[in-house]
Amino acid sequence: MVASTSALVHLDTDTTIGAPEAEHPAAALLADCLRGPTGWEVPVQVGAGSIQLRRDGSRSQDFGAEGYELDATPDGIGIVAGDDAGLFWGVQSLRQLLPVAIEARTTVTGVDWAIPTVHIEDHPRFCWRGGHLDVSRHFFAVDFIKGFIDLLALHKQNVFHWHLTDDHGWRLQIEQYPELTHRGASYTQAEARSVVAYAAARGITVVPEIELPGHALAVLAAYPEFACAEGPFHPATEWGVFDDVFCVGNDATLAFLRHVFDEVLEIFPSRFIHVGGDECPKTRWAQCPKCQARMQQQGLANEEALQSWTIRLFDQYLAQRGRRLVGWDEILEGGLAPGATVMSWRGVEGGLEAARAGHDVVMTPQTHVYLDRKHYEGDHEPGRLSVSSLENCYSFDPTIAAMTVSEAQHVLGVQANVWSEGFDTPAGAEVMIWPRMSAVAEIGWTAQADRNFADFVGRFRHFAQRLDAMGVAYYRDRAIWG
Ligand code: TNX
Q: Is 279 a catalytic residue?
């Protein structure tokens, strides 16, 4: 809810930030956001300030998780929330109320740093509001990743799903297996930690994805002993799904994967860890003596059951370490691992089936929220495979009609996926992402009854000025600009 009058509340060199405690992350973020463009070092102090951040646990019920209130009056600006996440989102709303010059990287003079007097009560519809990026098919540098995270935060999205491994390249340094990243671009562990810290300072959790048992060619190129067949293997140079996958009949392969997760868990504090699980052809397993022996030992009826057994193994491995497994909806095949959360991508059916079985679900159907798709039919459209217009994307409701109330409670939220087969530059990625990611952010945040595409279009037209100020490219969609 937003109420506003025409009066302005001005910030100036006397502005201070009052925070619940020293080094409060949302207060630090706000000071940081103001510092560059205004040129002011806005002090953060415990207690009172002209911009007052207050966490009030006793009112958590009123605000809801991640909810906040923002009041701007001639006497000052106040943000109050039940939890720190709410304070982060309140700070992002304040940022959006400031002139777009606040996005400049250098000091801008002659700007009236003011916001309208306003009263906002706000809270999210879902607890998982995600943006994914594939950095395997094409690699994106740490600076771009951080810029993307900042934009997710600006949209109050709280999960960055980092698709780190695939057939085309393994992108995370693993100390025990240097050959994984020996050739080709990748992130050092120090860089990955810096991304995690940067995201945490904006209220975002980084969920890493390590693909298994399929999409493994980049590993097999470096360590062919983890395949069923004889090598050599090469990282894929075409797009698609490949037959050579991890040999899960081989104990050494499973040990390799455990060692990888041991390092991954050290870098990523996220409770959810993504293990892929999608698009794993069973052709090699059907021919492989080790995989067949494993099936016999474990009493597994077919190769689908072997995939399910593998996912269960890592479900347990992660659970023993206090984490939760999340995987693409193929993990339903052959039986779902007990603790698994499902990302429903081939449609919403996988999500429905998982929710019926009492599992948590993140909705990410390719029909609506795959941002690698074309915006419209046509040869010159950026995008590939099929079409998902902005309006189609916006129209998605994660709580699908066929769900009962209790099934719908298993829907954690929504995520847009950005597969990078079709672009290889930051601007190339950005025109796929914006404005469609903004639409997905609104699906995750705003109550269904309050959503309206025409209204979104009007607001995005205005918001685009902020993207311009940030130097972020976006698709000039005719649904917005005619
Ligand atoms: C399917 S979505 C994939 C990806 C591709 C994508 C292209 C999923 C779990 N697997 O490997 O990049 O389609 O849209």
A: yes
| C-alpha 365 to ligand 1 mean position (Å) | 11
**Residue 45 and residue 48: Cα distance in Å, rounded?**
7
Let me know: does 435 contact 480? Beta carbons within 8 Å: yes
User: How many CB atoms within 10 Å of residue 240?
Assistant: 8
**CA-wise closest residue to 214 among 288, 283, 273:** 283
Question: Per residue in 247-258, is it b (16+ CB within 10 Å) or e — as a string?
Answer: bbbbeebbebbe
- pLDDT tens for 154-164 read 999 999 999 99
Is ligand 1 within 6 A of the CB of residue 370? yes
- Please, what are the domains in the chain? 2-122 (3.30.379.10), 128-481 (3.20.20.80)
Burial of 168 (0-12, 13-18, 19+ CB in 10 A): buried
Is the Cβ–Cβ distance between 416 and 440 less than 8 Å? yes
CA atoms within 13 A on the CB side of 377: 0
Instruction: Count Cα atoms within 13 angstroms, Cβ side, for 146.
Output: 13
Which among 204, 216, 333 is positioned nearest to 272, based on CA atoms? Answer: 204
**Predicted confidence band of residue 183 (pLDDT cuts 50, 70, 90):** confident
Contact in structure between 157 and 443 (CB atoms under 8 Å): no
**Rounded to an integer, what distance in angstroms lies between the CA atom of residue 459 and that of residue 453?**
10
Residue with tokens 């005619």: 482
Distance (angstroms) between ligand 1 centre and the Cα of 242 equals 12
pLDDT tens string 35-72: 999 999 999 999 899 999 999 999 889 999 999 999 99
Cα of 372 vs centre of ligand 1, distance in Å, is: 9
The predicted model scores a pTM of 0.98
